Amino acid sequence: MSDSAQPIVSLRDVTRTYAQGKTEVLALRGVSLEIFPGELTVLSGPSGSGKTTALNLIGALDRPTSGSVRVDGHELATLSRGELSELRRDRIGFVFQAYNLVPILTAYENAEVVMALQGIDAKARRARVMGLLAQVGLEGLEDRRPDEMSGGQQQRVAIARALAAKPAIVLADEPTANVDSETAEALLNLMEQLNRELKVTFLFSTHDPRVMARARRLIRMVDGRIVEDKVQG
């Protein structure tokens, strides 16, 4: 990575505390990290390690108790609710373990929805979405609804949707959790290819060893702290 490259994500001494009954749970304890363009990075760790909390903060779905979170040059604490919504829509792609597809929409419509919200014209949307569906191996399946597709196919639609708006970064929370081993390998191959060929920046959270093995950079978390940050391969 060039020394002159600006990070897409920057966390500085971030803490996140939750109330649990009468006690406080410290989910993140002074976490600092940077994610740069073109990286394929994994946040790993056991349940309760803080990786999903970190992903939620980076995705502007939550706010830190203290510290600084910057995404695509924006200090999130300074943005209004509407500005945070626009940042999520335009600059952050999400791939959820439960897919989060709209059941009544087709694969095409699910992949198109973010671009429609952005006000992009129908012709441009169609060219982009059809190209993405072909890239993720769903050519010819654009008219199928989620209940007519396998779990792996639904996750591919979710990946196409995440990429449609050309985001600065794609966040994937446990992307292989709900698919079988063969499908998981195919999805990982796809995301590696997108990272390599299109320079898509990915940040995963996972405890799946198969995902960790594919990471170019592996960040291990334990008890809300980063305990290891290494480049692989």
Overall 3D shape: globular
Ranges with pLDDT <50 over ≥5 residues?
none
CATH H-tier superfamily: P-loop containing nucleotide triphosphate hydrolases
First and last CA, distance: 14 Å
Tell me the β content: 25-35%
- Helices, by number, come to 7
Q: Give the tally of β-strands.
A: 10
Strand order of the largest sheet: 6-7-8-3-9-10
What is the averaged pLDDT score? 92
Quaternary structure state of the chains depicted: single chain
Radius of gyration in whole Å, from Cα?
Answer: 18 Å
| Order of SSEs | EEEHEEHEHHHEHEHEE
What features would you describe in this structure?
The chain has one domain (9-231): 3-Layer(aba) Sandwich (Rossmann fold). The chain has 233 residues and is of the alpha/beta class. Helices cover 35% and strands 28% of the residues. The mean pLDDT is 92. It has a 6-stranded mixed beta sheet with strand order 6-7-8-3-9-10, sandwiched between helices. It has a 4-stranded antiparallel beta sheet with strand order 2-1-4-5. α3 (107-117) crosses α4 (122-135), α3 (107-117) runs parallel beside α5 (151-164) and α4 (122-135) crosses α5. The chain is globular. It has helices at 51-58, 81-91, 107-117, 122-135, 151-164, 181-198, 209-214; strands spanning 9-20, 23-35, 40-44, 66-71, 74-75, 92-95, 169-173, 202-206, 217-222, 225-231.
List the helices and strands and how they pair.
Elements: E1 9-20, E2 23-35, E3 40-44, H1 51-58, E4 66-71, E5 74-75, H2 81-91, E6 92-95, H3 107-117, H4 122-135, H5 151-164, E7 169-173, H6 181-198, E8 202-206, H7 209-214, E9 217-222, E10 225-231
